[in-house]
User: Fold Glycoside hydrolase family 65 protein from Candidatus Corynebacterium intestinavium.
Amino acid sequence: DISEYSRTLDFRDGVLRRSMIWRTPGGKRVRVTTERMVSFQERHLAIMALEVELLDSDAAVVISSQLLNRQDGEGEFPDNNGPVAVQGGELDPRKGSTFDERVLIPKHQSQPEPERATLGYQVNHSGMTVAASMDHELRVDNPATADSGDVEVTTEVAEDVASVVYHINGAKGCHLRLEKFVSYHSSRHVAPKELAFRCDRTINRAKQVGYSSLVENQRGWLGEFWERSDVRIGGQPELQQAARWCIFQLIQASARAETTGVPAKGLTGAGYGGHYFWDTEIYVMPFLSYTNSNYARNALRFRYEMLPSAHERALELSHDGVLFPWRTINGHESSAYYAAGTAQYHIDADVAFALMKYFYATEDKDFLMREGVKILLGTARFWVSIGFFNSAQDRFEIHAVTGPDEYTTVVNNNLYTNVMAQYNLRMAAKVLKKMRAERPDDYADLAAQHKLNDSELDRWELAAEQMYIPFNEELGINPQDDFFLNRQIWDLDDPNGEPKRPLLLHYHPLTIYRYQILKQADVVLALFLQGERFSQEVKRADYDYYDRLTTGDSTLSAVVQSIMAAELGYADKALEFFHRGLFVDLADMHGNTSDGVHIASCGGVWTALTYGFGGLRDHDGEFTIDPRLPEGWEHLSYNVTVRDVQVRVTVRPGEVELVSVQGKDAGVVTVLGQEVRVTGEPQVVAGETVLAAG
Assistant:
């Protein structure tokens, strides 16, 4: 019987706390409090605490602390014997795979100290190694009438579970606190026994610092993070809390991704098998580039290290250049269904786009001219290789591709793909020509290494200039691809019954492919990412046409639709789609949050706040702000760090305020059509900022 219960996640220190009063079957009341924290500063450390207080009677207390390999071992709970299936139930491509064999092969077990235990493994197929260790500190405050030294400790270590069990005879009023230190290390080359030694060293350092100091240190670290990254929504406490939850998920997913990417689920669940997609580049990188640029650079370096595998993949498909994998965990393509996987060639342009967004936010020329140029060179070569110059039409076309909308596959001239490839080609030519002029020796080395000649750069520019961008004069819209408008429309508002959702779980792909129906924003995403090349009239026509066809079966869609609805003045739709993206996990709106948090949607929430309602636009280093503040919001405040200068933007009804947080000159920004130099002195620009309902 639980008489009181609370659970809180404190964004200020990253500690998850639970508290309850439990009445035992014998009627004894016990207060139980737990804490759990994964350290941002100590990359191999997590700490936990359990407090037990006997409120109204004596009791024998037994605490079992475990280190458990739940995949191969005794189950997640003591009474759940046998291996744990990672996922089960209906066939759902979004879920992680189940395993019918051991994943982790036991290689090391040890008990270096009385209350410390270590387990070490080798991963069955990859050969990677991992070790985890736990240690404890127990404090018992027993009334003077009890034997405060009456504590019995037993430790057992087996292949898949280690346990430390405490037996305490507690008197009424007894208060005990058990602190647990957990360390984990992994490697591609080091033996589990050596990793166990590393775990020992990590725990020794942590215990020397102390539990309370570790929490306090993390509070300081997160304080600096929130100073750079917070978004404030005045007068909307529920939205404020949810937005900060999303931002917290982003930093959890990216802060320690130093040699890896950001998985679609972060580290919150086994959905998608831990794989990386384009999610990072399009939905997470804007947040990282403008608030935590070191983590953005780490994500880009992860793609850079993938270039050899991407080159091999392009060769497998008879293409030049590089083709980044649509779905991967180690650089190799892991997508089993080419139509909705490998054919999404836009991944190359997405990586190039993220690279340039990072550069224009940071002006990190060294990274651009060292690693970035190789990404741009390889991706530009790829586009020229798979596309062709249609001399009869005097244009460059790209056939047999799939855009972001996975309900329409293997098409010719997908608008999003062509627009993004065009940008990719232009930036590649621009950056390499700049390198040729400013760093001739480096350019000569690059050209020799990759057999690059000047005429190739000209060819990239010509392909970009002649890139075919589909447009239907009769409807005044951009078709999603050459054949899209010829398909039958699938009416989502059919009075005879709406289709079962999500479509991918209820209809065969061949059925879905026959219709004008979208899984997620495709053309509308292009309108946002490359907005400067579309007129407002065309944007409105495109949005109106595709909005009624978009199912939103992908969690990537709502935030993009919100941004464009805000730009076009569709206040109700902007807020509706924003709420869908904001609460997709907190309200489990897609019914699969148990598989892990949708990290890209969290990134999209930040983008919807800053770019959508906040009105931020960035085009090749030029910044404009034209806000769309929803009615009822007292203000919206966000931070962007541009060229190492943090700028705070505050939107209120009728005005926009900009200030350089550290007082440095942040350059010129166009605000509500006026050019403003941003300094340490707040600059206020008056004008229409409210997105009127309707």
